[in-house]
Amino acid sequence: MRLDKFLKVSRIIKRRSVAKEIADKGRIQINGKVAKSSTNVSVGDELIIGFGNKTLTVKVTQLLETTKKNDAELMYDIISEDYKTDYRQPFSD
Fold it and tell me: Where is the RNA-binding S4 domain (predicted)?
């Protein structure tokens, strides 16, 4: 399955056009190598996705052509979710 389609079907990224744009800017790696939107994804692959402030690392567990919202999370396991600046924590004095 193509990378951009996997990201859309798994709902990691909501739209395929956005997934394509992020991949073509070199912000996604598959097994440590920079990937284009047309790169094939297989079960067992590790994806590192660089969003603005967040880096998400996931492992592909299954490939489905279409999913319902509840089943989308079954397509991957989150390995780590790192933030450059964690805005979720309250500031301390």
Answer: 1-61
pLDDT in tens, 49-78: 988 888 889 998 888 888 788 778 888 888
Q: Which residue has the tokens 């056009």?
A: 17
Position 28 in a domain: yes
Please report whether residue 91 resides in a domain.
Answer: no
pTM here is: 0.77
Which CA distances in Å does 90 have to 56, 76, 81, 93?
Answer: 22, 30, 18, 10
Return d(Cα 10, Cα 74) in angstroms, integer.
8
What CATH number is given to the structural domain containing 32? 3.10.290.10
**Cβ of 63: how many Cβ atoms within 10 Å?**
16
